[in-house]
Amino acid sequence: MLKEGNQQMLIFFASIIIFFVILLIFVYLKSQKREKNLKLRTAELEKFKLAVDHASDHIVITDANGIVVYANKAVANITGYAIKEVLGQKVGTNKLWGGLMDKIVYEDMWNVIKKQKKPFIGGIQNKRKDGRIYDAAVSISPIFDEHKNVQFFVGIERDITKEKEIDRAKSEFISLASHKLRTPLAAINWFVEMLLSGDAGKLTDEQIDYIQEINKGNHRMVDLVNALLNVSRIDMGTLAVDPQPTNLAKVAEDTIKDYNEIIKAKNLNIKTSFDNRLTDVKVDPKLIKALFQNLISNACNYSPTQAEVVVSIQFVKKGTLLNKKKLKKDFVYIKISDTGYGIPKHQQEKIFSKLFRADNVREKDTEGTGVGLYIVKYIVDSSNGEIWFNSRENKGTVFNVLLPYTGMIKKVGTKSLI
Amino acid sequence: MATTLKKILIAEDEKPLAKAIELKLRKSGFDPKCVYNGEDAVTEILNNNYDLVLLDMMMPKKNGFDVLKDVKAKGNNTKIFITSNLSQDSDIAEAKALGAIDFFVKSDTSIVELAEKIKNFLK
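Structure tokens for the assembled complex are given below, as produced in the milestone run.
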């Protein structure tokens, strides 16, 4: 028989041993779980790596200085450079696929991703190893450490050369078809004119009425064909921009005169306000005329009788607060407002798209082509300007345009607007 | 005594347009003749004394620019108006530099106005 003291000692040691055994089992189970988790995570990572490695888009990871630390298989497929040739090189230079665009494009890109620390999304042209050029849709995102410092960049590129070619072929088709349509339209126009001027004998009033309808339809077709030609020129990038010192107030006044007929017919109240500090601005006279034509004709066409249309051109200094922003340089501020039909709220976001016409005006006027504001937006964007509007249905619309006071940027091209 | 009608050559490959101009000019008291390609235009201009030529630019066999060059090279001073659907400033400037007197974009020009311009020019 054990003494009571020894018995207690035994229980004590047995408890300690049991405790340690339980602890061991617990630790073992825990480590098993951790190992399982680790295996799972490794498998998941492996899955992601496989996905990135075999993605059809070109994916590159660089360090904060743009030195390539990872490139997937698509990089080799798209650019023709072997992955080992790419690793350790700086992206965006002519040692690899970059360096083809203007220096300013790369500077802008670096500015966005490195200084502004924002993703860059855009379209650029690159060069394959064999020298062939391809179009790429690019997205570059900075990845930060815990102190918000850029740790690396992830660049994803998609080869969109084929899409671009299809788009170009489509634009070329529209351009060719429109051009071909102009000849039969001119023939219809001339024969209609000759009929109306009595060349084929005197017409009855009813005959004149019918022929005038043909004439109107034909003129509308000419307008549409010209609009399509203009859009195809914009889309193909063949439109030239040729800035000349231009008196904007005079262009606006001349444009208002062009619409005298409708202004008188609708008894519109036209007001103008031109800043006398404005000197000639270097803009393409044809493009600025098209801008005024579209905005002023919209204001006149889409307003009821006795509506008010105000055309204002002001000089605004750098630092002025406009459209909730402080202007970074001097601008010309063109404002064209009307008390007309307005643009329905649910359709406002579509108004700058090609061939779009708002429901409320389609009922009132069937003549519009739906490309005017698309052209205006192109003119403003290509001038590094800004356009915005406020509109309320049945109250009116205000279009605001800012053009840099330094004028438009010259662009060599083979075509001008019709 | 009947006065001789002024002779006008219409060089235009699009036959409906050529026909429209021919009819209009005949109605307006001229003696028009049509040719439908650039080579025939050069031959006609060099071998006949036309009072005026209406010349299209995009024609088969020889385009309008080459017609202008050939005629100029032979020292022929026949007066030429361009009637074309080319409407670029550069085309207009080039045609005028090659000796064309005026340039009309067909799809933007009224045939009544064109006939009036010709009448005034040949007065």
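Chain A touches chain B at residues 179, 182-187, 189-191, 193-194, 197, 199, 222, 226, 414-416, 418 (CB under 8 Å). The two ends of chain A are 119 Å apart (CA to CA). Further analysis is deferred to the final report.
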